[in-house]
Every structure is written in C-alpha cells, then in structure tokens.
C-alpha cells in the first residue's frame, strides 16, 4: 500500500482550528491547548464546549458543527465522547483532526478505537488518539498540552521529529528547545489509527523547511512499506530512527504503551540498513545524528582528520574514530610542510592535529583552510576548547566562514560551561553541529559517513 499524504498540510498550515473540550478550568488539557493556540497560532482559533459561553474571552461554540469553517479540529474530551465528536467533524467536512484523548487500544479498548476508525476512515485525516499532536515552529500550530513555562518550544530549524510516544517527544522538544536545535515540525502520533510515521515521512520528503527527519518508533504495522518509503525518502532527505522496545521486557512495554507490534530488533536494524534509514542506538544519537545530517553534507569516504587544541580530547576522539572504522589519514608531505609554516614548532602535525593549548583563531583558520582544500580528507572533526585565552571571540565567524566556504563535512566539539554554551549556540545558529564530547562529535561524523556511503550505492 502507498503512503497517504492527502490533506496532511492541514495539520501544519490550517487557517483555523477548533479545540473541542476547551475547558473553562485553567490547568485542564483542553484549556492549555486552547490558551497556547490563542497566544501563538497565526490563524483563527475557536473553543468548543457546550457548557461555556466564553473561554479566555472568546465566543464558545456548543459543537464543532456550529463553528465557522475549520481546517483542523483538536479533540480533548473523554474517550466515550470521542465517537460523537468525530461524527460531527466528518459531517462538518473538516480535513484534519488531532485526537489527544487516551483510553483506546493502548488499554485494550479496541472496540472503541475501531468505532472511531470506522467513522473517520476516508473522511478526515486523524493523528492519534493518545498523542500530543503537532507542533509547527513556523505556523505555530501547537497542540502539545504542556504549558510553555514548563516546556520550552524549539526555535525554527531543519530537524523534523516524529514520535510514537508523546512523553518522549515532548521532553525531547523541551531539551532541544534549551539546546537551541531548530525544529521544523514535531508530530506525536500515538495509536496511529490513521496517519502514521510512513505517511508523515513521505510528506516531509517534500517539506522545504525540513532538512532531516528523526523518528522515535516503537513498532510499525507494515515493515515492507516502511522500508519502501524509507528508501524513497532517504534518497532525498536523511532519516534517523530510534527503535524502542528491543529487549524482552521493552517489547512487552511497547504493547501496553501504544499497542504496537514491537518486532525483532535485528529485523528492524536490517530493514533500516537496507532502506538507508540511519539507526540511532540511543536518544542522544537520535538528535546528534539528525542535527549533523540536517546541517552538513554527507562525506565522500571514511578518511577523517581530527583537529584539536587539547591533546586528551584528541586522543578520546581518535579512540572513537577507530571504533567507527574511520581511516585516520596522515597529511601528505607537501601539506605538512605548508602547515608547519602556519603553526608553532610544538604543534603536532599528525592525526589528530594538536594545535595545542595556546592556539589562536588564526591557527585554526589556516589549518582548517588547508584541510578543507585537501581532497584526500573526507571529513573533519574539529575540537575547539574555547576556554583558552588565546582563542578570541572571532573563532565563531572564522569557523562559520570556513564551513560555508568549503562545505566540507565537519562536526565540532566544544565542552564547557556558560561561555562555551553561549558560543555553541552562536555556532549552531549558523548551521555548525557542535557536541559537548569528542565521542559524540565523532559519532555524528559517522552518520555523515554512512549517509554518504548509502547515497553512493543507490544514486
Ligand atoms: N464537546 C465539547 N466539550 C466537551 C464535550 C463535548 N462532547 N464533552 C465534554 N466537554 C468539555 C467538558 O465540559 C470540559 O469542560 P469544562 O471543564 O469547562 O467543564 C472539557 O470538555 C473537558 O472534559 P472533562 O470531562 O473535564 O475531561 P478532562 O479534561 O478531565 O479529560 C482528556 C479529557 C484530557 C482528553 C482525558 O480524557 C485524557 O484522555 N487524558 C489523557 C491525555 C493523554 O495523556 N494523551 C496522550 C498524550 S501522550 C503522552 O504520553 C504525554
């Protein structure tokens, strides 16, 4: 079966939204969703609640049938009330709905879930139930029912994130928001009675705002379809997936969480490999890889050079690079001679290149300039420990300029406190993926290497 992308744009760019179950009580889920939309959404928002005349100063409608035309309905009423609400949504002719409500297949209430499915199939596109829904950093559609003072929303950026778990998705949004990683769209898909990760992946293939797609997956209903669509999408955009529920107990937990079939971990890994989906083994890897892939080009090979201003960090990076199977090339004689003239005699011109603890921005500029022009180097892991006083603030524009000029695949490591974090944000805002440990910077490079290898195989 083909993925169904029909009307999915109504989730991300609706002109108007109705919140059914927009409660009068502050702190209730429907009240929070409505409040956040009223504050941030660029289109019209209507509250639906038969018991209220006005909510947050807005005229309230007894049913979705009474509202002016709506493109998207958000449903936050108790599970028993959902079928009737969805019948009205269908009657209204609305194109898309997010059902936040829990209490369906995930708790064994399959009959209710099937009933809703019968009502909506072929009539209205539905995300959920048992989900957080959608966050679009550009249009400000935001159905996450967690208040902004508790959950920071990420800024606009290139990473799209599809999550089968609402909690996993939302707390990652919070963490990403804090880290400054830009997100294009977030989709929490819950029990997937209609829209699933495959539909969304296909939709995101054409989404101009999305540079890479990260997926938290507990299980898929159609492995062959996931592989086929994964392969199509991966030719155009990088896809990274964290498969949860790999252990025996983890598999059991999946079935009681979203009711999905967890499947064998080995089968999933093989399917990902064959379809060009890059597998993340940990939560950290999911976003580290998605960030590198969204911002940087894939490499043309495994020949990686490490540059550092701290010897220990260079060694740790080297250890990890060996684990990743990188070819840690040495510079050719001529390049060594040129570099030698640019750095003091105590700098170490091997791989890793150690610019030492009094490196300044110019030393980095000259070294990286030389390495970026060297066709025998496929990628550079650049460690910049910003604490040293010789390194001026101009290191940020220098790294940005070099990265933009050569587009050589690069990942960066900067470890430290407040000052380092500030500079890290500045670098990331300009599209340089920065990691707090050498291991993470090297692993992120391995995502660029894997993507390059896969693209060379299929294109
Ligand atoms: N149409 C319109 N409004 C209605 C209707 C209806 N048919 N029925 C009830 N309402 C109104 C109610 O009157 C109420 O408004 P009020 O407070 O002003 O009286 C409002 O809708 C909400 O109804 P309640 O009965 O108060 O329900 P409550 O808010 O307690 O719970 C909810 C509803 C939040 C949807 C709940 O059933 C639920 O599913 N909670 C879990 C949600 C969840 O966790 N989803 C998964 C997220 S993913 C994750 O892991 C984080």
Question: Which secondary structure elements does this structure contain, and how are they paired or packed?
Answer:
Elements: H1 9-12, E1 16-20, H2 29-40, E2 44-48, E3 54-55, E4 58-59, E5 72-75, H3 82-92, E6 96-99, H4 110-120, E7 125-127, E8 133-136, E9 156-163, H5 166-179, E10 183-188, H6 197-205, E11 212-217, H7 223-236, E12 239-243, H8 248-257, H9 265-275, E13 278-280, H10 283-295, E14 304-308, H11 311-323, H12 333-342, E15 348-349, E16 353-354, H13 361-373, E17 379-383, H14 395-406, E18 410-413, H15 418-429, E19 434-435, H16 438-458
Parallel strand pairs: 1-2, 1-5, 5-6, 6-7, 9-10, 9-11, 11-12, 12-13, 14-16, 14-17, 17-18, 18-19
Antiparallel strand pairs: 3-4, 8-10, 15-16
Number of domains: 2
Question: What top-tier CATH class of the largest domain fits best?
Answer: Alpha Beta
The averaged pLDDT comes out at: 94
Biggest sheet strand order reads: 8-10-9-11-12-13
Number of helices: 16
Tell me what the CATH architecture of the largest domain is: 3-Layer(aba) Sandwich
Describe the structure in your own words.
The protein has 16 helices and 19 strands. The chain is an alpha/beta fold. The protein folds into two domains: 286 residues, Rossmann fold (3-Layer(aba) Sandwich), CATH 3.40.50.261; 162 residues, Succinyl-CoA synthetase domains (Rossmann fold, 3-Layer(aba) Sandwich), CATH 3.40.50. Strand 3 and strand 4 form a beta hairpin. It binds acetyl coenzyme *A (ACO). The site of acetyl coenzyme *A has 28 residues, from helix 2 and helix 5.
